[in-house]
Design goal:
Shape: elongated
Number of domains: 2
Helix content: under 10%
Radius of gyration: 25 Å
Largest sheet: 7 strands, antiparallel
Strand content: over 45%
Structural class: mainly beta
Length: 505
């Protein structure tokens, strides 16, 4: 064989390997020619990354590291869990998110960095060939080698937030990058801080979100992309099972534990929990369904909220039908009515309705016929999300009576109202685990209007014990809101929940 041809083939193979697409990233390669080559591997089942990298440092006027990246333009939010593998050699080995103007080793860039000794810090090079910078008020992570890092670009402003699993994200640092172009390289990096060594890290829950403007109106401008996700509530590990360029919302977990039920474009669909083809559920004449639907405790019936044209509040009305599908039975004649909870006995449902053209209240109504009963008397507050506990002793809901939106509970007759959460967030849609020991809910930032639960915001899913003392624990950091977790979405075994996150495609 011709030696020159062989050399070209070998170089070509090596080049192809170094820049091959991996997972969500278009390419991965070494930057700055470290003496020991790095690599990025993607586990499709776990949806996680394994990075290996060497390099003298990412500092001074040039860098050496391994990089998995993609090209992005405009604003974005980069979020993931990071953990070093093994003890490593140098306490200043680095992993994290990086945004670069180019792939040159002296390029302007901004990085959210977790060091081997726990130092978590925002670092940057403001222009090509300049010395690196970081803020003087560096914050150290209190735990070693484990962190959630989020690097956000909003215009020319870069912000690093970080958290340990279970805690809210905290701002670590902010800087203005004047020499970063609109189109950039963004991705995961790893550096050994030692040119003779290689270090390794695991990265999971990788989400690259491209948000819309705060004033974006989806009703006028259209909906952005959605991901249907499953979350392990104990570990926080997430898996995307389905994606759409349109809008899908509000997954329920089917009683067999093998499928989810969600709504999209006015219809309900089933999908296997590992992803795959969707199957439309027959809901008869109710073909304008919204994101308020759920399955009875015995797994036999489905309650839905569907719109009737020409009626108040877009005509949202509660119906029930067999879970296998069929013609629905009208439950609430008055509108608007939005279903939220089944009674454990399967004879009543709880819903939110407006009857005075001013305020929403919580009601119950027998599904076999009968009068609706108001459980709240709204004096200008906002109520939503009523859901029965599995033992039938309480109805949990969210209400703004204390000034912010918090989680409450009351007895099924409306008496004994009790506030359960007390914090700065606006907390919505409590959902109880099948054993009644835990509650998951969505938390909107304090900047959101107390009566609103909009789409396309940075929100948290939080978990709170109900049978013992304990504060809410953050189990997911995401871009979402309306439709993320409006309805009961626990798995039958109580180990997972399903939800929807958003990102512009």
């Amino acid at each position: 064989m011709n030696k020159c041809f062989l050399l070209v083939c070998l170089l070509g193979i090596g080049f192809f390997h170094s820049v091959a697409q991996v997972g969500d990233f278009e390419s991965n390669e070494d930057i700055g020619h470290p003496k020991i080559s790095g690599s990025t591997a993607y586990d499709k089942v776990a949806q996680s990354y394994r990075l290996k990298g060497s390099g003298y440092n990412i500092w001074f006027a040039r860098d050496e590291f391994h990089y998995a990246y993609k090209k992005l333009s405009g604003d974005f939010i980069l979020t993931a869990n990071f953990s070093f593998v093994g003890n490593g050699v140098d306490p200043h080995r680095k992993i994290g998110w990086m945004v670069r103007a180019s792939l040159a080793d002296d390029a302007a860039h901004c990085s959210g960095v977790l060091h081997g000794d726990g130092l978590t810090v925002l670092q940057w090079r403001n222009k090509k060939g300049a010395a690196m910078r970081d803020p003087e008020d560096e914050r150290f992570a209190t735990k070693k080698n484990y962190s959630v890092l989020q690097l956000e670009r909003a215009g020319g402003i870069f912000t690093l937030r970080a958290a340990h699993f279970g805690e809210p994200l905290q701002v670590i640092g902010t800087t203005v990058m004047e020499n970063i172009p609109d189109s950039v390289y963004a991705g995961l990096f790893i550096c050994a801080h030692n040119e003779k060594e290689i270090t390794e890290a695991q990265v999971w829950n990788v989400r690259i979100d491209q948000p819309v403007a705060p004033t974006y109106d989806p009703e006028k401008l259209g909906y952005i992309g959605c991901r249907l996700e499953i979350l392990n509530v104990a570990t926080g590990a997430r898996k995307v099972i389905h994606e759409s360029k349109g809008r899908l919302e509000a997954p329920n977990w089917m009683p067999d534990g093998n499928k989810l039920l969600f709504n999209e474009n006015g219809s309900l669909y089933k999908i296997p929990i590992d992803g795959g083809a969707t199957e439309k559920l027959n809901t008869g004449k109710a073909d304008r369904n919204n994101n308020d639907h759920g399955i009875s405790f015995d797994g036999k019936m489905l309650a839905i909220s569907s719109h009737r044209q020409g009626l108040p509040g877009w005509g949202s009305t509660v119906y029930v039908l067999p879970l296998g599908g069929g013609e629905p039975k009208l439950v609430t004649e008055k509108t608007p009515s939005y279903w939220h909870g089944w009674a454990p006995n399967g004879k009543e449902v709880a819903f939110v309705g407006m009857r005075d053209d001013k305020y929403y209240n919580i009601y119950t109504i027998p599904i076999g016929g009968g009068e609706e009963k108001a459980l709240t008397n709204n004096q200008g507050w906002h109520y939503d999300g009523p859901e029965y506990s599995p033992d039938g002793k309480y109805i949990y809901y969210n209400g703004s009576e204390s000034g912010t939106m918090q989680i409450w509970r009351m007895k099924p007759d409306g008496s004994g109202k009790e506030q359960l959460t007390f914090d700065e967030y606006n907390n919505w849609f409590p959902h109880l685990s099948p054993d009644g020991k835990w509650m998951v809910f969505i938390s909107f930032p304090p900047t959101i209007d107390v009566s609103s639960h909009p789409s396309y915001k940075q929100v948290q899913l939080r978990l709170m014990p109900l049978t013992s003392a304990g504060a809410p624990k953050t189990i997911a950091y995401l871009y979402g809101g309306q439709g993320t977790i409006n309805v009961p979405s626990w798995s039958p075994d109580g180990t997972r929940i399903a939800f929807v996150s958003n990102s512009k495609k």
